[in-house]
Write a structure and sequence with these properties.
Layout: H1 2-18, E1 26-34, E2 40-48, E3 54-61, E4 68-69, H2 85-91, E5 104-105, E6 119-129, E7 132-142, E8 153-156, H3 162-169, E9 177-181, E10 193-197, E11 199-201, E12 210-214, E13 227-236, E14 243-244, E15 252-257, E16 264-267, H4 268-278, E17 297-301, E18 309-314, E19 318-322, H5 324-327, E20 329-334, E21 340-354, E22 363-365, E23 372-377, E24 382-387, E25 397-401, E26 406-410, H6 454-485, E27 525-526, E28 529-530
Parallel strand pairs: 3-8, 4-7, 15-22, 16-21
Antiparallel strand pairs: 1-2, 1-10, 2-3, 2-6, 5-6, 6-7, 9-10, 9-23, 11-25, 12-24, 13-14, 13-15, 13-18, 16-22, 17-21, 18-19, 20-21, 23-24, 25-26, 27-28
Protein name: Aspartic peptidase domain-containing protein
InterPro entries: Peptidase_aspartic_dom_sf
Organism: Paraphoma chrysanthemicola
């Protein structure tokens, strides 16, 4: 009996000390940032150059592999915003290379392959956090306007992202992955969002199902490659029965573009039943559409208003509910002095109505991720969408370590330094869960509320291990021989999923996802080159 207990103890502690998991990730706030004009603009903050850093906010872009900013000489702001602080707000800040003493020219002034805009390229020092600096990082300054749906700078997070590669090469992150939560800026109690690089924030993944799928590589109108289907949409009036809006309509295939400031963009035929159930009337201004802030989203008259919620189902598997205060709110606009203001005489619904014959592929926008969470893993060529919890909680940063095929927690204080993994892989083989309703797993071991210090804990552990070292080693050898004798055939080896993934267990990286991966026909390579999981050409969103 004692030998069995000892064997069990050894098999529990061995992976902790025998495996090497080196999780590294960064967590960047996505929130209102103060610019030099004193305007506060939502985005990911870059502090550029010196001696006085210039603040610029960026939108996460799955379309681009490089990063594109707006500069003072070529701001291309529309109409009345063209000059002054309103333009800086509209563009998320304007970088002025002439006042940075650390800026250096680069010979690359040619548009990158498949880019849709001519740009001037430059290098400067980029500060992401107090102890995370990218010296002489190359980025582009646009010299022409692209479109009004994404009017700020764009941080390139595409499949061959130079930004993610730089962070990986610098050992700031341990995988080419990222996760995004928009937060919200339109409610009475705003909530900061986040962009996690190299992993995800477990506190932003709600209990319940998620969906995971491979990138789509054959859709010219969605170079992002992140495509899902909207299979139903229902409205729940306050105190009334739920009403299905799209009962007679086909499923809607949409491209996920988190850099756009709306919940979704849908054809007029899909908007009409929503408007009918809500009982709202379009504003007379611009045919009921916003002009600059939350571009082309729907403006309605202030009364009457719909007081319920909206539920959107993706791939017939995951339902995301949009609360009323994020669905209908006072119109937002950019004041000529720079700040973003509210207009109570008009209400705004952050849904874009695509006119018939427009040709634009329907989309899910960034504001959808006020209620959902997006996780993208380029190393695996797939993405996950899960519901986000309605209440904020203490961040729990999890990192993918691609080299060691594991997931582990990164302490918040060490998120930009040398992370201390709290758990390790217990199986070096790749595995996956077949349960489509399994939660995104917590990959950490359970923690204790004990107040013992690190030295005391280390002493206890070392003492215990010293006393058990020889016995543990012998027991492990015997256990391993028995395991080999009883092993399954090689083609069946790996993790076996017989139920939902344990929420607080440590898991192999491949268990992060609720669905099995799907290989591209003919394998992952074409003509000797790795197949791009994100389209590398054509079809820039219109």
């Amino acid at each position: 009996m004692s030998s069995l207990l000892l064997l069990s103890f050894v098999t529990l502690i061995w992976p902790v000390y025998g495996q090497t998991c080196q999780p590294k990730a960064l967590n960047l706030p996505y929130k209102s940032q103060r610019l030099v004009t004193n305007a506060e603009v939502r985005g990911v903050l870059w502090q550029i150059g010196g001696p006085t850093a210039q603040n610029v906010t960026l939108m996460p872009s799955a379309y681009y592999n490089d990063t594109y900013l707006w500069s003072a000489p070529f701001n291309f702001c529309p109409g009345w915003t063209r000059q002054g602080p309103a333009c800086a707000t509209y563009r998320g800040g304007l970088y002025d290379r002439s006042i940075s003493q650390t800026e250096s020219d680069t010979a690359n002034n040619v548009a990158r392959t498949f880019d849709d805009t001519a740009s001037n390229w430059t290098r400067d020092d980029i500060r992401l956090q107090d102890n995370v600096v990218l010296p002489q990082y190359e980025f582009a300054l646009r010299t022409g306007s692209v479109n009004e749906f994404v009017h700020k700078g764009e941080l390139g997070l595409g499949r061959t992202s130079t930004f993610l590669k730089t962070l990986s090469d610098n050992k700031n992150i341990s995988s080419r992955s990222y996760s995004f939560f928009w937060g919200n800026e339109v409610t009475k109690e705003p909530r900061d969002g986040s962009l996690t690089l190299g992993g995800y924030d477990q506190s932003l993944v709600a209990d319940g199902p998620n969906i995971t799928t491979k990138f789509t590589v054959d859709e010219a109108k969605c170079r992002e490659g992140i495509i899902v289907s909207l299979t139903s949409l229902s409205l729940q009036p306050n105190g009334g029965a739920s009403q299905e809006a799209w009962g007679d309509l086909n499923d809607l295939r949409v491209c996920v573009i988190a850099s756009t400031s709306n919940i979704m963009s849908i054809p007029a035929s899909y908007w009409d039943p929503i408007q009918r159930i809500m009982g709202v009337e379009l504003s007379s201004y611009r045919n009921g559409t916003a002009d600059t802030h939350f571009y082309n989203t729907t403006l309605i008259k202030s009364s009457p208003t719909f007081s319920g919620t909206m539920s959107i189902t993706l791939n017939s598997a995951l339902t995301i509910t949009i609360p009323n205060d994020q669905l209908i709110f006072d119109e937002r606009y950019i004041d000529s002095s720079g700040p973003i203001m509210s207009n109570a005489t008009s209400k705004q619904i952050p849904i874009v109505r695509i006119p018939q014959g427009n040709g634009m592929m329907p989309r899910i926008g960034g504001m959808f991720f006020s209620s959902a969470y997006l996780m993208v893993n380029h190393d695996k060529g797939e993405f996950t969408i899960a519901a986000a919890p309605t209440k904020s909680a203490t961040s729990k940063l999890m990192a993918f370590d691609t080299a060691n095929n594991c997931i582990a927690q990164v302490e918040a204080a060490q998120a930009s330094g040398s992370p201390n993994p709290t758990s390790t892989n217990t199986n070096s083989n790749s595995g996956s869960s077949n349960n489509n309703n399994s939660n995104t797993p917590n990959a950490s071991t359970s923690s204790s509320d004990s107040k013992l210090g690190g030295g005391a804990i280390a002493g206890i552990v070392i003492g215990a291990l010293a006393g058990l070292a020889l016995i543990a080693g012998l027991a492990f050898i015997l256990w391993r021989r028995k395991k080999r004798a009883n092993a399954r055939p090689a083609e069946l080896s790996g993790l076996e999923s017989t139920g939902p993934v344990e929420k607080y267990a440590y898991h192999d990286a491949s268990e992060m996802y609720a669905e099995n991966g799907h290989e591209l026909p003919g394998g992952g390579y074409r003509d000797g080159n790795e197949v791009a999981y994100e389209m590398d050409g054509g079809g820039r969103r219109v």
